[in-house]
Design brief:
The protein has about 80 residues and is mainly β. The chain has 1 helix and 5 strands; from the N terminus they run E-E-E-H-E-E.
Length: about 80
Protein backbone atom coordinates (compact mmCIF):
# COMPACT_ATOMS: atom_id res chain seq x y z
CA UNK A 1 0.00 0.00 0.00
CA UNK A 2 1.26 3.46 -0.89
CA UNK A 3 1.45 6.14 1.72
CA UNK A 4 -0.59 9.18 0.67
CA UNK A 5 1.39 12.38 0.67
CA UNK A 6 -0.04 15.86 0.73
CA UNK A 7 0.41 17.47 -2.67
CA UNK A 8 2.12 20.84 -2.39
CA UNK A 9 1.05 23.72 -4.59
CA UNK A 10 3.62 25.40 -6.79
CA UNK A 11 4.91 28.69 -5.38
CA UNK A 12 6.81 31.69 -6.67
CA UNK A 13 10.44 31.73 -5.55
CA UNK A 14 12.99 34.51 -5.92
CA UNK A 15 16.41 33.23 -7.00
CA UNK A 16 19.49 35.41 -6.56
CA UNK A 17 22.97 34.76 -7.82
CA UNK A 18 26.18 36.38 -6.56
CA UNK A 19 27.56 39.47 -8.26
CA UNK A 20 31.18 38.32 -7.90
CA UNK A 21 32.29 34.70 -8.24
CA UNK A 22 35.47 32.67 -7.93
CA UNK A 23 34.73 30.03 -10.60
CA UNK A 24 33.15 26.58 -10.54
CA UNK A 25 29.63 26.02 -9.25
CA UNK A 26 28.06 29.11 -7.72
CA UNK A 27 25.64 29.24 -4.83
CA UNK A 28 22.14 30.52 -5.58
CA UNK A 29 19.87 31.88 -2.85
CA UNK A 30 16.20 30.84 -3.13
CA UNK A 31 13.21 31.88 -1.04
CA UNK A 32 9.44 32.25 -1.30
CA UNK A 33 7.45 35.37 -0.49
CA UNK A 34 7.00 34.78 3.25
CA UNK A 35 10.43 33.13 3.58
CA UNK A 36 8.89 29.93 4.94
CA UNK A 37 11.05 28.06 2.42
CA UNK A 38 14.58 29.26 1.84
CA UNK A 39 18.06 27.96 1.21
CA UNK A 40 21.14 27.97 -0.97
CA UNK A 41 22.13 25.50 -3.62
CA UNK A 42 24.98 25.15 -6.12
CA UNK A 43 24.34 25.80 -9.80
CA UNK A 44 26.74 25.23 -12.69
CA UNK A 45 27.70 28.24 -14.83
CA UNK A 46 25.93 26.92 -17.94
CA UNK A 47 22.68 26.51 -15.99
CA UNK A 48 23.08 29.97 -14.44
CA UNK A 49 23.44 31.52 -17.88
CA UNK A 50 20.36 29.69 -19.17
CA UNK A 51 18.14 30.70 -16.24
CA UNK A 52 19.51 34.14 -15.33
CA UNK A 53 20.99 35.50 -18.56
CA UNK A 54 22.52 38.83 -17.47
CA UNK A 55 20.18 39.30 -14.50
CA UNK A 56 21.17 38.80 -10.86
CA UNK A 57 17.68 37.85 -9.70
CA UNK A 58 14.82 35.97 -11.32
CA UNK A 59 11.42 34.76 -10.19
CA UNK A 60 10.29 31.22 -10.90
CA UNK A 61 7.24 29.09 -10.31
CA UNK A 62 8.50 25.99 -8.55
CA UNK A 63 7.47 23.00 -6.51
CA UNK A 64 9.04 22.79 -3.06
CA UNK A 65 9.81 19.16 -2.34
CA UNK A 66 9.73 17.57 1.10
CA UNK A 67 13.52 17.08 0.95
CA UNK A 68 13.96 20.87 0.74
CA UNK A 69 14.82 21.07 -2.96
CA UNK A 70 12.83 23.12 -5.43
CA UNK A 71 11.87 22.01 -8.91
CA UNK A 72 11.62 24.96 -11.29
CA UNK A 73 8.58 24.79 -13.55
CA UNK A 74 8.99 28.10 -15.39
CA UNK A 75 10.27 31.66 -15.13
CA UNK A 76 7.68 34.26 -14.17
CA UNK A 77 7.49 38.07 -14.10
CA UNK A 78 8.60 39.95 -10.98
CA UNK A 79 5.56 39.88 -8.65
CA UNK A 80 6.70 43.09 -6.95
CA UNK A 81 7.69 41.80 -3.55
Amino acid sequence: MRKKTKKRRAQVFKLQRPILTSGGAEMVLAYNRNESAMGQFPMEKKDLKTLFGREFKVFVLANHREDGQIVVLKKVEDPGW
